[in-house]
Amino acid sequence: MSRPQIHLVDPRTGESDPAEIHRVFESQLATSLAWRESTIKERIARLKRLRTAMVDRRDDFYVAFKKDYNKSPSEVEATEFMPVLDEVRHAVAHLKKWAQPRRVMPTMTTIGTSAWIEMQPRGRCLVIAPWNFPLNLCFGPLVSALAAGNTVILKPSEMTPHVSAVMAEVIAQVFKADEVALFEGALATSQVLLDLPFDHIFFTGSPAVGKVVMTAAAKHLTSVTLELGGKSPVIVDETADIKGTAQTLLWGKFTNCGQVCVAPDHVYVHENIKDKFLAACREVVAERFGSTPEAQRQCPDFTHVINQRHTQRIAGLLQDAKDKGARVVVGGDVDVSSCYIAPTLIDNVPANANIMDEEIFGPVLPVIGYRDLDLVVRTINAGPKPLALYIFSHNKVRTRELIQRTSSGGVAINHCVLHYAHGNLPFGGVNNSGIGNAHGEFGFKAFSHERGVLKSGPIMVAKMFFPPYTGVKQKLIRWTVDSLRLPSLF
User: Catalytic residue at 339?
Assistant: First the structure.
């Protein structure tokens, strides 16, 4: 049964009541202070209750995802449930270690003291989640925030109302509003939330909106984690396993209809293998989604675009590329009314096509042939730093050089997207593609303040820096400063 903390939206505006948002925010202050002293056992119990309630509503989530954008139950399991449940499992197993104070050795100038680092909850946190993985990207950060001992307000996307409704019921079942609350709504609700002095904001979305979030956070000097996006490039060299690359790459590209922040955005393929690579891609698309346009339209395993507006945007990018000379190799079928775009590959894409500038975030994959790898590297480095770089190669020296010569949030070698699921790796962007990291211990740290603590010992070397500065003290200070040029003893 749901508790009465579910916060209804105004049917006229689709927004949550600002007064209720303020009331809940204020109510979480006392809880956040009390939760600073919460035990590991108590935090783990909260995580387990969330997990149980989420799994209990499994069938309801299936229905909700189908209504919002035709997502199959298998894809819901793999891309929504699996990441969140793995976060819970990982946190439960390792939270005690993550949270324990960590002793540190003294430096030359602090000899005679002892020191350690304590992990303290940040306090009241805000999680703003996007529409492309509404459950994963809302509850995933929630797991990290709860593991760190924080209270949380969640703001899911208004574009997935059915999934948001089920999430709201799960939250209401597990938590009181002064612990965790979920508010539905669109821009106005987000603005009300961003005006509040949260202790940390975790935002997942586009770089453009990330800048808005960061500007709002700056008013209160609120710390932020920004999980953004960008045009994640793929390099396929002549040593790559062509069939395996096509199978893996198209899995990463067409999962969730390409609406994935780390989806391969465009592919640079060596000219010597380009034709074979495209032929392998045709076979993969036919095997997975059907060999005819009609079969692909009816495929139950292919998610649709989230709404007609985004369908029109992607279709516009595809048409612009075709008008400028690009060739459709696979797919190209578009039906805006049903939010459908077929799994599509294009080649001969000119550099001035809009699809080469804008993040595609849909099921269209440009393939660009190359002979000069240096030119590819210069092209990648000339743009904003992407969230991911994918390298398909069996040349270890070349792979190492590509990693060193480029910058991205993460890298996958002979795979794609999967690094997102690795709980022991930091997941995050760099500059335009994000600030800070998530997942596992990195997510725990994102929602924690690493507080340094120093304790004076019986021998207090620092007393020699107290005035008055006698001749002896001056010599000791001078000797200490000069000794800092020597190798460290610690």
Answer: no
227 catalytic per annotation:
yes
For residue 468, is it within any domain?
Answer: no
Regarding whether 154 and 23 lie in a shared domain, the answer is: yes
pLDDT in tens, 114-161: 999 999 999 999 999 999 999 999 999 999 999 999 999 999 999 999
Active site residue: 80, 169, 184, 227, which one? 227
Q: End of a domain among 371, 388, 423?
A: 423
Domain hosting 113: range is 18-228+439-449
Q: What is the chain's alpha carbon radius of gyration, rounded to the nearest angstrom?
A: 26
**Facing residues of 157 across strands?**
none
Where residue 341 falls (left for φ over 0; alpha for ψ -120 to 50; beta otherwise) is beta
Cα–Cα dist 422/424, whole Å: 6
The total number of structural domains in the chain stands at: 2
Residues 359-391: tens digit of each pLDDT: 999 999 999 999 999 999 999 999 999 999 999
CA 274/CA 284 separation, integer angstroms:
15
For residue 24, what are its two tokens? Answer: 């809940």
Residue in the block written with tokens 């920004």? 226
